Amino acid sequence: MEDLDQIRPGEIEHVLQDAPDIPREMLDYTTRVLPGDGICPLATILQKLSAKGYAGAMAVDVFIPRFRSRNLFQTAREIRRKAEAVMLKTGVV
To answer: How many Cβ atoms sit within 10 Å of the Cβ of residue 4?
Structure first.
């Protein structure tokens, strides 16, 4: 978390991802989870970035394997619901 204090405007392109509670070495694109479903302290991260003036994009990777066989509209609705819940909780929306 202390590293976030060192970020300067323009250094972050986009943000909003979560990770499961597994060893860091096992994390990759296929192990990510939707915002709020993992262990990342997203509220704290978003609040710190907001305080630094971050106003860039918030994106969610959709490389999660279960999304490959799902209806795209269902997937988009689920992502929006979960991402908005995290952003509302932190007051960045």
So the answer is: 15
The per-residue pLDDT for range 19-47, each reduced to its tens digit, is 899 999 998 888 888 888 999 998 888 88
Number of domains in the chain: 1
Residue 33 β-bridge partners: 18
Where does the pLDDT of residue 62 fall: very low under 50, low under 70, confident under 90, or very high at 90 and above?
confident
Question: pTM, whole model, 2 decimals?
Answer: 0.74
What is the spatial distance between Cα 20 and Cα 26, in angstroms, rounded to a whole number?
A: 10
Euclidean distance between CA atoms 26 and 28, whole angstroms:
7
Domain extent for 18: 2-90
